[in-house]
Design a protein that fits this description.
The structure is a single chain. This protein is mainly alpha-helical. It has 2 domains: 218 residues, Tetratricopeptide repeat domain (Serine Threonine Protein Phosphatase 5, Tetratricopeptide repeat), CATH 1.25.40.10; 81 residues, Alpha Horseshoe (Serine Threonine Protein Phosphatase 5, Tetratricopeptide repeat). Helices cover 68% and strands 0% of the residues.
Length: 317
């Protein structure tokens, strides 16, 4: 679980840096897969996606192609050693481009890897992530579909495809993919969080609340799952409990702009004007996008009641 939490925290950092928010993060894989093939997309990615991505090391199905083969075995043929070096170089370049936010370059590297390893499901899934990051959602769906054909029992391609489906507003299809992830791994916090996002898209707030709560309980450091939970509580009228969760998150993560902005709006409506103002100063100092209602409504996808509260607050500014 520790590896998983570190991956989630890395994802949140990348998301905030890239300006990525779908409704909330959509991640990838559980602990035992963090050192395997898959790279994640819902927590990372395009403008609509907070999913968001969790990046992990790429593992090859064919052990003779593993990077360590060339360095540890003196019996490797020169041509094979050269091929392994080329694959490892491309792999590192793909991850480096992703970390730099150059998703077009990452897509190119993954494509070059597919020319050499067309039956590696992880590469198809990773290229899909690069495409999602560029809002090439339909193309990404094709890549995830191919990854699923090659590795039908791997949860990550289903998780990533669900995130892309969310971006297209195909909520039911996304839920189907998240259900499949949970059938394979019943304790995957990313799948619960992402399914909550899709349920929120359908206006099924009670179901979303349950999934967000489960995600946060499974991964206590998964701050955005708890934030989504608070926003959903506000939507169904549980204002005091929503504010309590927001305050707890701000206390634990003082630079969490999302919750500072939400807390500002909720406190203003409740009549706590001074506390609302102080949180707002901090929120916009961290991220000025919260002054843009269109971004909050359509990209970050706050709950409608929360957006209405922010609009009331902003009209006074």
């Amino acid at each position: 679980m520790k590896q998983r939490i570190l991956a989630l925290l890395f994802t949140l950092t990348l998301i905030l840096w890239l300006g990525v928010f779908p409704c909330q993060p959509s991640l990838a894989a559980s602990d035992d897969r963090m050192d395997s093939d898959w790279v994640m997309s819902d927590w990372m990615m395009s403008d609509w996606m907070m999913s968001q991505p969790v990046f992990s090391e790429l593992a090859f199905s064919d052990p003779t192609l593993a990077p360590s083969s060339a360095s540890r075995s003196s019996g490797v043929e020169p041509d094979l050693a050269s091929e392994v070096t080329s694959i490892e170089t491309l792999r590192l370049q793909a991850f480096d481009a992703t970390n730099r936010g150059d998703f077009a370059a990452a897509e190119t590297y993954w494509t070059q890897l597919l020319d050499q390893l067309p039956n590696e499901a992880a590469i198809w899934s990773n290229r899909g992530n690069a495409r999602v990051s560029q809002n090439k959602l339909e193309a990404a769906l094709q890549d995830y579909g191919r990854a699923i054909e090659l590795a039908p029992d791997a949860p990550d391609p289903y998780l990533n495809r669900g995130a892309a489906l969310e971006g297209l507003g195909r909520w039911r299809d996304a839920i189907t993919d998240y259900d499949h992830v949970l059938a394979l791994d019943p304790n995957d916090p990313a799948a619960y969080n992402n399914r909550g996002n899709a349920e929120a898209g359908l206006g099924e707030w009670e179901q979303a609340i349950e999934d967000y709560r489960t995600a946060a309980d499974l991964a206590p450091d998964f701050a955005f799952a708890r934030a989504n939970y608070a926003l959903a509580l506000y939507q169904v009228g549980q204002t005091d409990e929503a504010i309590r969760n927001m305050k707890n998150l701000v206390r634990r993560y003082p630079q969490f702009a999302d919750m500072r902005a939400a807390l500002s709006a909720a406190l203003w409506v409740k009549g706590n004007r001074g506390e609302a103002e102080s949180n707002w100063v901090a929120a916009v100092g961290l991220d000025r996008r919260y002054k843009d209602l269109g971004w909050v409504r359509n990209t970050r996808r706050w709950s409608p009641a929360m957006v209405d509260a922010l609009e009331r607050f902003l009209k006074i500014q």
